[in-house]
Write a structure and sequence with these properties.
The protein has seven helices and nine strands. It has helices at 13-24, 83-104, 127-140, 166-172, 175-181, 189-202, 211-219, and strands spanning 3-8, 28-35, 46-50, 69-72, 109-113, 146-151, 154-156, 186-188, 208-210.
């Protein structure tokens, strides 16, 4: 089976890396990018829809049907934000998109990028981690074929990326050493994309994927241990 995927957040660093990985994958038949601004990528597999209000996708409903997976990479930094504002652009927006997609594509696999140290108990000290944890928990209750939460830490960018933050550029050169010393805290952004593709194609009992899980699942797509 070849798959058709939708990507949100492709104009950001994580989304761009996932997009480039998906376009290079033989098993990915086509990619639809939905965003407020263009991702800046041209490819025969790629179609792009620019939409001003991502929180309301009802005008696009018919164009979103028939897809096998959604790779949701849209997010913002919580630095300087109050919890209610961060909740609106993290929890509220994500749930609005996912709720519509679950209705029009119930057989879809939904892959959500949260982050290392996300708090699934929703009770921790870090505001962003609580909000991300709440988002993960409520996404898991939606009637998709499967929902997987990806919690990457520092990532080595995909070759050819343009939208890369300085810290991640610094990580690229010493990545093998960093991975050897801190395997639970780093991964390749290409492996994030490959692991999303693999859970779509082959499934996985793991619903929450930390950095070592991302690396392992990218290399061994039939890995299917439970958490």
């Amino acid at each position: 089976m070849n798959i058709r995927v939708i990507i949100f957040g492709a104009s950001g660093m994580v989304g761009e890396g996932v997009l480039l990985t998906a376009l290079a994958a033989e098993r990915v038949q086509s990619v639809l990018v939905v965003g407020r601004r263009t991702c800046g990528v041209a490819h025969p597999k790629l179609r792009e829809i620019l939409h001003a209000d991502i929180s309301d996708l009802r005008p696009l409903e018919e164009q979103l049907r028939g897809y096998d997976a959604c790779y949701f990479c849209l997010g913002v930094s919580s630095v300087g934000m109050k919890e209610d504002a961060y909740t609106r652009v993290t929890y509220d927006l994500t749930m609005s998109v996912a709720t519509l997609l679950a209705r029009v594509n119930p057989g879809m696999t939904f892959c959500y990028v949260s982050g290392q140290a996300t708090d699934g108990t929703e009770q921790g000290r870090l505001m962003w981690a609580r909000v991300k944890g709440r988002t993960e928990n409520h996404l898991s209750a939606l009637p998709f074929r499967a929902v997987h939460h990806f919690r990457p830490g520092l990532m080595k960018p995909v070759p050819g990326q343009h939208n890369v933050k300085l810290l991640f550029r610094i990580v690229a050169s010493p990545y093998p050493l960093l991975h050897a010393i801190f395997p639970k805290s780093v991964c390749r952004l290409a492996d994030l994309g490959r692991s999303m593709i693999n859970v779509t194609l082959y499934g996985s009992e793991k619903r929450v994927l930390e950095n070592p899980d991302i690396t392992q699942l990218a290399a061994h797509p039939h890995t299917n241990e439970s958490t």
